[in-house]
């Protein structure tokens, strides 16, 4: 009976993925129950590998890089996932301090063109700005006044010269 | 939550390592099979990449389970992935395609089979058809289809034994 089952072609259908779900269930039961079925199945698996070896084509260079690249992306995404810090676990902050509990970071001193200034300096800068405006206004005012005075003086000198003549 | 984080971080490099080991062992075999189906190396490579990219830790566990045949599992996944493509290509009923297969790969097994065996083997192996569908298409009982498939494998087995002797 077992030999009849083995010879029926169900095993071949199974290894080629052509068996129905019912047949697969039945076969797995037979495989577990009868060692002959298991041996026959292993032989067929070897046959399938033989077929594949005959047709084997070495993957082009860079194929693995494409596969590993997508895993690397996942690793990076996993490490940068903000979700990991949003949990309500109060001891979450410890992830940053306990080695091995959270993501490990390498400290890198970044190059920055900005400097930090104390907030108090805000009023000093504001005062300097206002005073600067006042001085500028005064300078313009006195310059114009001076120019006006110079013109008047010139006119007076001209009038005096004319009177003398 | 901390435990989850640690395991995820640890699993990705392990996953990468397992995939790499599977790729080294079976990449060429799978690519050969896929190329036979799609008939174009660039497209076959794309499918191979997709098969490996979609492998999850759970799949790898299944593949590497004691008693399981890793190559067959991977081939089943590739076949599933190719199913939409397979539906768009011509059937093995076309004698020209069978001849082409012999020509492309020098597939010795197919050339040793008779026409009926070729139709069944090609339909199941390259076109992912199940026995019921093929029986309907060829207007033959399912038992006959299984018998023809078995005969095809006997031819392959004989070839294997012959080459092992020599």
UniProtKB/TrEMBL annotation, chain A:
<protein>
    <recommendedName>
        <fullName>Anti-sigma factor</fullName>
    </recommendedName>
</protein>
<keyword id="KW-1133">Transmembrane helix</keyword>
<keyword id="KW-0812">Transmembrane</keyword>
<feature type="transmembrane region" description="Helical">
    <location>
        <begin position="123"/>
        <end position="144"/>
    </location>
</feature>
<keyword id="KW-0472">Membrane</keyword>
TrEMBL record, chain B:
<protein>
    <submittedName>
        <fullName>Sigma-70 family RNA polymerase sigma factor</fullName>
    </submittedName>
</protein>
<dbReference type="InterPro" id="IPR013324">
    <property type="entry name" value="RNA_pol_sigma_r3/r4-like"/>
</dbReference>
